[in-house]
């Protein structure tokens, strides 16, 4: 009997999980349920063990040592007092020395630097968006037949797999180390990311309007423009605004490697150990990015006609904030 | 224009959607094609408009075989098939795409005549004041009237309507049918509409085509459309419902709209 592999395996299983021989059908069902439950628990345990092992290996690879962190902690805290120079309001309430930040903003002309950063992001987005639209449309199976549309999708995938920082390195011989190269890098990156979002959007286009335009005797190009693109133009603009948001952040990053604008200021201050000025720049970046985000979000919520949730005015947005916050907190309990 | 259909056949693989269908609709007539769902009504209309290629057979308008059927034969769809993002006017104007160059149409630089034609068409369906309104903010009935306007702007030789009122409430359906009929009469257009509500069909149709399982089972006038004929088209069960509503009528007499429970509309 033990030669039969099925029976042998069953017996091993019975040993581990308990037999499912029961008197009544209820007992049998109970036994099976218990077995599956134990099996599920075991597999969860194995998964956790695998993650734990991988985590330890990863920490090893990045030279993670608690002792190092402890050793350098005092240096970090002293840097923190540079980042956030202490002062007090009316000589009473301790607070960060905000005037030192604003002083640097004026001295270094950060508004002008922010203009450079914004210009890189904006110009890059404007260069990339039409190409993304073209690539997205040509990547759609409705426009270009099956195997050939993947040429365009593939091209966009390759563009996307290369980060914008790397695109900047590639473009240095063309545009030198400066804002021009950064703009080209952002433009290229936009083709990949926005094109991808648009391809998804085009997949969900409805057939009805396309057929309606076809039925009027319109030519192929007219059918694509009026039947298809007209359906995705709103989401396209909304996604472009979202990509603009991301591109402002990317422009800061590209500034650090020499693109200019706020990123460059950030690096210069860090290199000269002016940590207070560095943090002043970072806070300015935060203000810039958040403002761009707010403008972009309001534009997008306006475009999303049916979605009434986000169409609050700026006044309502600010005044109603504490209430919405407390609502959210209470609801999460 | 007189529509003449000869031996129209359409196969999808082994499935026969239309089999040797031949009929004629006189110039300016308002004709209705009846049949259960799956009988081949949509397939036939789509072939007439050129959205679907027939397996064999030919279509003639005034003895001339139509080749560029899409622009000569305008179509109104059950789901309107309008571009939601555009205004009623812009949608109506898409009817002129077949005679407008690409860049002209892209920039909406059609001639004043074309633009006035679009507005006249909107006027015909009673939507002149709503011309600037975005289609997606319109009711289903209004959208369908924009669909009719777009078809009229094509300056077609004939008008097709595939279940034009099937997704509308009875009141809107009534309005849309009235506008469809008056638009066709005003421009003397031969019209062929598929309708599954027999009461509406009887009210508006002059000529009738009956399809069953892809075959033509009836072609004739309103007077010839007897209960027996409806039985041929819809089968016993659904016609029984018709008959129950017509108990008072003498043999063979056709039930009137008020007395019938048409297939497709529950009471």
What does this structure look like?
The complex is a heterodimer of chains A (333) and B (267). With 333 residues, chain A is mainly α. Chain A folds into 3 domains: 5-61, no CATH class; 66-96, no CATH class; 103-332, MetI-like (MetI-like fold, Orthogonal Bundle). Chain A has 14 helices and 2 strands; from the N terminus they run αααββααααααααααα. The longest helix of chain A has 40 residues, at 220-259. Chain B has a 6-stranded mixed beta sheet, sandwiched between helices. Chain B has one domain (3-225): P-loop containing nucleotide triphosphate hydrolases (Rossmann fold), CATH 3.40.50. Chain B has helices at residues 41-49, 69-72, 88-93, 102-106, 112-124, 140-153, 170-186, 198-204, 227-244; strands at 3-12, 15-25, 30-34, 56-61, 64-65, 73-76, 158-162, 190-194, 207-212, 215-221. The N and C termini of chain B lie far apart (38 Å). Chain B is globular, with a radius of gyration of 19 Å. Chain B is 35% helix and 23% strand. Chain B is of the alpha/beta class and 267 residues long.
Key attributes of the depicted protein:
heterodimer; A: 333 residues; mainly alpha; 3 domains; two-stranded antiparallel ribbon; 14 helices; 2 strands; extended; B: 267 residues; Rossmann fold; four-stranded antiparallel β-sheet; 35% helix; disordered C terminus
Secondary structure topology:
The complex is a heterodimer of chains A (333) and B (267).
Chain A: H1 5-17, H2 25-61, H3 66-83, E1 86-89, E2 93-96, H4 98-107, H5 110-138, H6 146-161, H7 164-175, H8 179-203, H9 207-215, H10 220-259, H11 262-271, H12 275-303, H13 314-319, H14 321-332
Helix pairs in contact in A: 3-12, 4-12, 5-8, 5-10, 6-8, 7-8, 8-10, 9-10, 10-11, 10-12, 11-12
Chain B: E1 3-12, E2 15-25, E3 30-34, H1 41-49, E4 56-61, E5 64-65, H2 69-72, E6 73-76, H3 88-93, H4 102-106, H5 112-124, H6 140-153, E7 158-162, H7 170-186, E8 190-194, H8 198-204, E9 207-212, E10 215-221, H9 227-244
Parallel strand pairs in B: 3-8, 3-9, 6-7, 7-8
Antiparallel strand pairs in B: 1-2, 1-4, 4-5, 9-10
Helix pairs in contact in B: 5-6, 6-7
């Amino acid at each position: 009997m033990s030669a039969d592999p099925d029976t042998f395996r069953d017996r091993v299983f019975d040993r581990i999980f308990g037999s499912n021989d029961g008197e009544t059908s209820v007992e049998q069902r109970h036994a099976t349920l218990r077995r599956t439950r134990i099996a599920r628990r075991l597999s969860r345990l194995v998964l956790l063990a695998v993650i734990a092992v991988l985590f330890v290996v990863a920490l090893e690879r990045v030279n993670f040592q608690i002792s190092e962190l402890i050793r350098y902690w005092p240096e970090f805290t002293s840097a923190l007092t540079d980042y956030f120079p202490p002062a007090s309001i009316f000589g009473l309430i301790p607070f960060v020395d905000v005037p030192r930040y604003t002083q640097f903003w004026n001295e270094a002309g950060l508004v002008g630097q922010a203009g450079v950063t914004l210009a890189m992001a904006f110009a890059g987005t404007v260069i990339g968006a039409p190409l993304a639209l073209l690539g997205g449309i040509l990547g759609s199976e409705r426009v270009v037949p099956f195997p050939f549309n993947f040429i365009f999708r593939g091209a966009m995938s390759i563009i996307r797999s290369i980060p914008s920082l790397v695109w900047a390195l590639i473009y240095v011989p063309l545009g030198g180390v400066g804002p021009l190269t950064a703009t080209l890098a952002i433009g290229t990156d936009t083709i990949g990311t926005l094109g991808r979002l648009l391809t998804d959007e085009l997949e969900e286009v409805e057939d009805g309007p396309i057929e309606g335009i076809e039925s009027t005797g319109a030519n192929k190009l007219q059918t694509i423009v009026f039947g298809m693109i007209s359906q995705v133009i709103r989401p396209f603009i909304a996604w472009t605004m979202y990509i603009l948001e991301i591109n402002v952040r990317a422009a800061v990053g590209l500034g650090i490697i020499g693109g200019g604008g706020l990123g460059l200021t950030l690096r210069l201050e860090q290199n000269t150990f002016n940590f207070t000025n560095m943090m002043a720049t970072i806070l300015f970046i935060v203000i810039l990015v958040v403002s761009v985000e707010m403008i972009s979000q309001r534009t997008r919520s306006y475009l999303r006609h049916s979605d009434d949730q986000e169409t609050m005015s700026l006044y309502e947005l600010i005044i109603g904030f504490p209430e919405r916050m407390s609502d959210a907190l209470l609801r999460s309990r | 224009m007189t529509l003449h259909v000869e031996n129209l056949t359409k196969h999808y693989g082994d499935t026969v959607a239309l089999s040797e269908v031949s009929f004629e609709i006189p110039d300016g007539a308002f004709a209705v094609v009846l049949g259960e769902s799956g009988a081949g009504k949509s397939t036939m209309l789509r072939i007439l408009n050129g959205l679907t290629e027939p397996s064999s057979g030919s279509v003639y308008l005034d003895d001339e075989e139509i080749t560029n059927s899409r622009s000569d034969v305008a179509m109104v769809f059950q789901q309107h098939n309008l571009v939601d993002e555009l205004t009623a006017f812009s949608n109506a104007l898409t009817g002129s795409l077949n005679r407008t160059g690409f860049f002209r149409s892209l920039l909406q630089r059609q001639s004043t005549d074309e633009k006035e034609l679009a507005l006249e068409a909107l006027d015909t369906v009673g939507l002149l004041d709503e011309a600037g309104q975005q289609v997606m903010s319109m009711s289903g009935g209004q959208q369908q009237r924009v669909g009719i306007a777009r078809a009229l702007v094509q300056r077609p030789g004939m008008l097709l309507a595939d279940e034009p009122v099937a997704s509308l409430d009875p009141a809107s359906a009534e309005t849309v049918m009235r506008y469809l009929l008056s638009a066709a009469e005003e421009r003397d257009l031969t019209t062929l509409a598929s309708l599954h509500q027999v009461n509406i069909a009887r009210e508006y149709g002059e000529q009738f085509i009956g399809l069953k399982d892809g075959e033509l089972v009836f072609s004739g006038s309103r007077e010839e459309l007897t209960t027996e004929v409806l039985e041929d088209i819809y089968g016993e069960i659904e016609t029984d419902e018709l008959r129950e509503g017509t108990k008072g009528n003498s043999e063979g007499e056709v039930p009137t709209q008020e007395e019938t429970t048409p297939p497709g509309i529950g009471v």
